[in-house]
């Protein structure tokens, strides 16, 4: 007997909080600060929805969701510094710290 499962979890924009809030970490274009929801789909039909924990950055050009972060100079002044800052500024392959404007990691060459 073979069981074939078609489904998964998807992210969708619920509400745009601020247009052009930051630049996309993948393509560098202007991206929006949004509230999002996660959607469980079974056989391409939405079954369950729940809200995301924190606002995220969404790029309309490349459809990339990424955690929102505060630039380092503003983060020092902000007492509620985001714990996701270190994740955003690191390469996905070699985990080295990067400038958020980079499109490729200068250490391993991975496209961001």
Automatic annotation (TrEMBL):
Name of a matching Pfam family: Zn_ribbon_15
Residue ranges of domain Zinc-ribbon in the record: 23-109
Source organism, top-level taxon: Eukaryota
Cited InterPro entries: Double_zinc_ribbon, Zinc_ribbon_15
Protein name as it appears in the record: Zinc-ribbon 15 domain-containing protein
Organism of derivation: Cinnamomum micranthum f. kanehirae
């Amino acid at each position: 007997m073979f069981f074939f499962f078609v489904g998964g979890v998807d992210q969708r924009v619920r509400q745009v909080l601020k247009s052009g809030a930051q630049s996309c970490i993948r393509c560098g274009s202007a991206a929006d600060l949004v509230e999002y929801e996660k959607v469980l789909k079974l056989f391409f039909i939405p079954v369950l929805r729940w809200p995301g924990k924190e606002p995220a950055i969404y790029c309309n050009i490349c459809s990339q969701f990424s955690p929102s972060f505060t630039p380092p100079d503003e983060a020092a002044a902000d007492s509620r510094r985001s714990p996701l800052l270190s994740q955003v500024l690191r390469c996905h392959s070699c985990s080295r710290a990067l400038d958020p404007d980079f499109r490729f990691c200068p250490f391993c060459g991975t496209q961001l």
